[in-house]
Amino acid sequence: MKFLNVLLPAICIVITSCTIAKTDYEAEINNETTEYFEFEEVTRTTSGDYTISIEALNGTLYKGYNEIHIKIFNTQSSIGLERADVTFLPILTDANGNKSSCPHDYNLEFVTEEDYYLGYAVFSSESNTTVNWQAYIGFQADSESFTINPSITVETQTNKNLNMTAFTGNDDEQYIIALVSPQSPNVSENDLVAGIYKYNKPEKPAGNFPDLSQYSYSIVKDYNLLLDPRMPEPSMGNHSSPNNQDLTQQNDSLYHGVVNYTMTGNWTLNFILHNEKGKIIKGTVVPTDFTPGIEGVKSELFIDILF
Q: Which domain range does residue 73 map to?
C-alpha cells in the first residue's frame, strides 16, 4: 500500500509533465504543410531580342534545394531557343561587398519535351537588407553572346521537411546537405532524398568577375549518409523508429534512403557522413538510451524537421 501511495503521485507527475511538453510542440505543428507541384515564374528579363524567364516551384526561390527551369525565347518571333549552351551562376553579395555562391548546376540541360533548361541551386541564405542574390545567366544565339544578371529573392524555407545544413568536415572541406523530399511526409516509411555538395577551393587567385573557379561546387560522389531519426522532445524520450535505411547515391546524383516516422511532431535526422573510403567526414553516434523528461542528444551532424 505504501508503494502504491508513492507510485500513483509519481505517475501523475510524469503524465502531467509529458502532457505539458507535448502540448507545447503540438501547437507548433498546427500549420499544415503545403506541397507544391507547379512551376511558376520567379522573374523575367530581356536582353536584345530575347526574353529569359526563371521558374521554380510555387514561383518562389527558397533557402535550400530548388529545382530551376529557365525558358529563353525570341521576343519578335515568340520561338523558344533550343539546345543552346546556357550557363547559370547564382552570386550572393553581402553588406561588405564580399561575393560567394552556393551549390548549383552551371551548364544547364535542355529538356526537349517541355522547352526549358533544367538546373538547380541550393541557396545557403535568405535575401535580406544586407544580403542580395543575382543570377548570372549566359547563352549564345544568332552567333551572339548574351549575359544577364537579374536580381532574385530567396525566401525563408517555411517547410522544415526541406531544411539544410552547412558544415566543415573533418577533412577541412566545406559541405552542404540539403533535403529534397518528401515535402509532406506521412506517418509511415518515407522515401528520403537529399543532395550532398562540396565547395571546390580555388587553386588560383580570382580573375575577372565572375570567375567560375572561385564559385565552383561539386556533387559529392559515392559517399554514405548513415541515418538515425529521433524525436528529441523531452516527452518523447529521444526514441527512434524501425526500418530506416541509410542514404546512398543513385543515378540522379542525389542520395536516397528511407525514414520511418511513427508519429507527427518534431524529429531530428541524425547523420554520420562517410566518404567513399569509409572515413567519417562528420557526425557522431547518438546514444540509444530512452530519456523521458530530458531533451535528446543529437549527432554532431543533424537536420531538424517538423510535420
A: 39-155
Question: What sign does the CA torsion over 165, 170, 175, 179 have?
Answer: negative
- Which three cell numbers, joined as nine digits, stand for 206? 580570382
- Nearest residue to 61 (alpha-carbon basis) of 181, 177, 156: 156
How far apart are alpha carbons 289 and 22 in whole angstroms? 20
Please check whether residues 166 and 255 belong to one and the same domain. yes
Name the pTM for this structure. Answer: 0.89
Of 155, 184, 208, the last residue of a domain is: 155
Q: Which residues pair with 31 in a beta bridge?
A: none
Distances from the Cα of 33 to the Cα of 42, 159, 180, 182, angstroms: 21, 7, 15, 11
Tell me how far apart the alpha carbons of residues 299 and 171 are, in angstroms, rounded to a whole number: 18
Q: Are residues 291 and 200 in the same domain?
A: yes
- Closest C-alpha among 103, 245, 231, 111 to residue 175: 103
* pLDDT tens figures, 253-304: 999 999 999 999 999 999 999 999 999 999 999 998 888 999 999 999 999 9
Q: How far is CA 268 from CA 160, 174, 300, in A?
A: 11, 22, 12
Q: How far apart are CA 242 and CA 259, in angstroms?
A: 9
Q: Give the DSSP letter string of 110-144.
A: EETTTTEEEEEEEE-S---SS-EEEEEEEEEETTE
